[in-house]
Design a protein that fits this description.
By secondary structure, this protein is mainly alpha-helical. It has eleven helices and no strands. The protein folds into three domains: 81 residues, Helix Hairpins (Orthogonal Bundle), CATH 1.10.287.1080; 38 residues, no CATH class; 69 residues, no CATH class.
Length: 198
């Protein structure tokens, strides 16, 4: 299979970069030093999607894939886990989260979404490990009413301001607007407007 061969070649290439006769910069990296690059590449992929630029998206997804393979290679060197284990876990997770496909259960979209969230909860995923806006969006989904969030009795002025932001996120999400993407678009608009004025 061509995809399998290309992926294997890429994994072997990254292993070579991390080897003793490889690249000094690549060899010096660890999970922590690569964190900003993982985040940066994910955001650049999102920007390519927003721009509708398929050519850039192909490049950015490649950069994102490189980050995944680098982390797997580092973990393999530390004997923590291998890329094979990562793929096996992903396959098992996809089957587990899609009983409507593999167990021939309900294909109702609401039921599918409920099952997905229920399985994630059973897997012990914590909302607070997510980026703040995404975590806030998920919390607002659970709480439902932005007025409850805004009028809550917060313990400090800082938390009170956070409550206002959380309420704004809940308001956006209740109207079908992704707050993360909305914020990105507002920032792009303001940045473009400022350059036009200048």
């Amino acid at each position: 299979m061509m995809v399998h061969r290309a992926f294997t070649d890429l994994v072997e290439l990254v292993a070579r970069l991390r080897s003793e006769d490889g690249c000094p910069w690549d060899r010096a990296q660890d999970h922590r030093t690569l964190r900003p690059y993982l985040l940066e590449e994910a955001h650049e992929a999102i920007s390519a999607i927003d721009a509708g630029d398929s050519d850039s998206l192909a490049d950015e997804l490649g950069d994102l894939l490189l980050q995944v393979i680098m982390h797997c290679q580092i973990a393999s060197e530390e004997e923590a886990f291998s890329i094979d284990e990562v793929m096996d876990r992903l396959s098992e997770k996809l089957v587990r989260r899609h009983p409507h496909v593999f167990d021939d259960r309900s294909k109702n979209m609401a039921a599918i979404r409920h099952t997905w969230e229920k399985v994630k909860e059973e897997e012990g995923r914590t909302t607070y490990s997510l980026p703040t806006i995404l975590a806030a969006r998920k919390l607002s989904e659970k709480l439902g009413e932005e007025c409850v969030i805004a009028e809550a009795d917060y313990p400090s002025p800082e938390a009170q301001e956070g409550g206002k932001i959380l309420a704004a996120i809940a308001s956006a999400w209740s109207r079908g607007i992704d707050p993360e993407l909305a914020l990105r678009k507002a920032m792009v608009h303001l940045s473009t407007a400022k350059r036009t004025v200048a």
